[in-house]
Design goal:
Length: about 600
């Protein structure tokens, strides 16, 4: 069989073209013929379990599932006949009879449930079979989502998503026959799972109300919400988001299937943390009077900042920005930069070394899909860039990719590695073993993070290159993928903004009496700047600190003026991801209170 060779078949009397290796469902879809499905989900392996997609193939006495039956050249397929409709209706009735599908009290009622939609489509308002109504568990022990076994139709979409997309295989089907049930790990409650990453991909895949987001439940159907496509700004991967909103509040957030970066997948940070975790917002400008920050108007706050900056000594002004700011804010910074004697961005430990010669890793996500060997050096994707970690797990588990991890901190990825070792100078025996593991690798990728930017890290990189060139078949070069942790740090560095790790040293180069901090929507409000006690003492000595931030924090405690800035879902513009792609930010909500986008605040203050 030559996969991809063109085939011709007739579906419902229509001549259709397809490619050898495609299923009947795929060929029908490509030719504009819709076949009902329930257990099928694009990008997952076909399962063929629900039997909603059955079709008749001329010459075959049995109906076959279109989602898992290959299309054959010259065949004739019927997708819609009285017999098929009767069988599909029977399937639906049996599904409804097996568990509690009492729609009015389900969080997916009124348009978000595929099962309900199918029932409407077949005109089902009652069923011919007795309800079994088993009393099954509603597991709401997980932080972000619940699992109501009563609504489950055992389609395994969640099981396959967890296994094939997130790569952890937390879920499976347990028990037998009518007692079949989704199980978490070795049959524990979701909240006790040791493997679940809370990525929420299983919830997004569930066609019923069995898996549901707690924060979205009973807030009205998503089908009646506004949808805005934007980009996650929690890390430099830049996954695509679809934000559902109603009455200027977020109802739910899903991955954008059309994103070229993430193809619909998200990690916990992008899917939940940004909107489910409560964070105290700064809603109005504030000016310090008699030792206390008091709310004021934008006009008064801007006037105060202008007065303070003009009173400050020439040569003693500095601005620090968060690496989360947009490209548009960066361009505004470039315009106003001359007003400041120093302008820098605060980055994580050792990240300044990554920013010194900023390299974008073109097509990194595709290269991760194609690699047959991966070396992870000083990067922690499980903690920082969850969607990259998912790709690594899937590569190892599904494609048998070789994985070598060199990191001083342990992570769940160690369990998937052929070799895992701390970043220290290692012996010859170790490098021989690395050579054995990577011996047949043809397309190795090196994924390195800030922790690799040490003298030992550079020595290790040198040894790795030698091992690969001397011991691996073909002597392929390592294709490096640089993995910073800050959202837009590479773009800012490429735009000339200096990375700063040690704030007090940077500010202490010469005395500073006016400091303007653009903390933007740093989740901790920029408090990480004050992690070291001596930095706080240092900032307290500065005559005037202005803080532009979205969230209250210890940083606002040392500010003379506080200006409220918009958060991720209130921003327009773009960020540049670690691959060098400029990705769009589209505001899903109007800014809360009197907050404004960072570049608008800066243009107003420095006009
Ligand atoms: S949240 Fe993610 S990791 Fe957890 S069970 Fe669902 S798909 Fe698997
Ligand atoms: S929980 Fe949802 S996705 Fe998983 S098997 Fe049940 S119905 Fe299907
Ligand atoms: S991997 Fe990064 S960009 Fe993607 S969802 Fe997670 S935090 Fe957001
Ligand atoms: S969609 Fe084909 S068997 Fe379920």
């Amino acid at each position: 069989m030559i996969a991809g060779k063109e085939i011709s078949l007739t579906i419902d009397g229509k001549p259709c073209k397809g490619a050898l290796g495609q299923t009947i469902l795929q060929v029908a879809g490509d030719n504009g013929i819709e076949i009902p499905t329930l257990c099928y989900l694009k990008n997952l392996s076909p399962w063929g379990g629900c039997r909603m997609c059955i079709v008749e193939v001329q010459g075959s006495p049995k109906v076959v599932p279109a989602c898992s039956t290959p299309a054959t050249d010259g065949s004739t397929v019927i997708t819609n006949s009285e017999r098929l409709q009767g069988l599909r209706r029977l399937t639906l009735e049996l599904l409804f009879s097996e568990r509690n599908h009492f729609c009015p009290i389900c969080p997916m009622n009124k348009g978000d449930c595929d099962l309900q939609q199918q029932a409407y489509g077949f005109g089902i308002d009652s069923i011919r079979y007795p309800y079994l109504y088993p009393a099954l568990l509603v597991d709401v022990s997980g932080k972000y989502f619940g699992l109501d076994h009563n609504r489950c139709i055992l389609c395994t979409r969640c099981v396959r998503t967890c296994d094939e997309i997130e790569g952890v295989h937390t879920l499976d089907i347990g028990n037998r026959g009518v007692k079949n049930q989704i199980v978490v790990d070795l049959n524990v409650m979701f909240g006790a799972s040791t493997t679940c990453t809370s990525c929420g991909a299983c919830v997004a895949a569930c066609p019923t109300g069995a898996l549901f987001d707690k924060s979205a439940a009973f807030h009205g159907p998503l089908s009646r919400c506004q949808q805005v496509r934007t980009t996650c700004t929690e890390c430099p991967v830049g996954c695509g988001l679809v934000v559902y909103t109603k009455d200027n509040r977020i109802v739910d957030v899903f991955g954008d299937a059309e994103s070229t970066v993430s193809r619909g997948h998200l990690c916990r940070r992008g899917r939940y943390e940004t909107w489910v975790e409560p964070r105290p917002r700064i809603l109005r400008p504030m000016v310090r009077r008699d030792g206390h920050l008091v709310p004021t108007s934008w006009g008064d706050a801007v006037h105060t900042v202008k007065t303070l900056i003009s009173a400050s000594n020439h040569g003693q002004n500095a601005m620090l920005v968060s690496p989360r700011v947009t490209n548009e804010t960066m361009r505004t910074l470039q315009k106003i930069g001359l007003r400041f004697d120093h302008i820098g961005m605060f980055v994580a430990d050792k990240e300044s070394a990554l920013c010194t010669s900023p390299e974008f890793s073109t097509d990194a996500m595709k290269r991760l899909d194609d690699a047959d060997g991966m070396i992870l050096l000083g990067a922690q994707p499980s903690r920082e860039q969850g969607v990259v970690a998912a790709k690594i797990r899937v590569a190892v588990r599904k494609r048998g990719v070789k994985l070598v991890i060199l990191n001083s901190r342990r992570s769940d990825l160690d369990a998937y590695a052929d070799i895992s070792a701390p970043i220290v100078t290692l012996e010859r025996k170790f490098w021989n073993r690395v050579g054995e593991v990577l011996g047949n690798v043809k397309r190795p990728v090196l994924i390195y993070g800030a922790a690799a930017m040490t003298a030992v890290g550079v020595t290790i990189l040198d040894r790795l290159t030698k091992v690969l060139t001397s011991q691996c078949n073909g002597g392929e070069m390592l294709a490096p993928i640089q993995l910073p942790t800050s959202t837009n740090s590479l773009a800012l560095a490429a735009g000339g903004v200096e990375p700063v790790e040690d704030i007090s040293t940077w500010l202490g180069v010469q005395p500073v009496n006016f400091l303007y901090v653009v903390a933007s929507d740093e989740p901790d409000g920029g408090a990480r700047l004050l992690k070291e006690p001596h930095v706080r003492a240092f900032l307290e000595q500065i005559d005037c600190v202005v803080v532009q931030a979205s969230y209250e924090s210890a940083l606002t405690d040392v500010a003379r003026v506080v200006l409220p800035s918009a958060i991720w879902c209130e921003k327009n513009g773009s960020v540049t991801n670690f691959e060098g792609r400029a990705l769009p930010l589209r505001a899903a909500l109007a800014p809360s209170g009197e907050a404004r986008e960072d570049n608008i605040v800066l243009e107003t203050v420095f006009a």
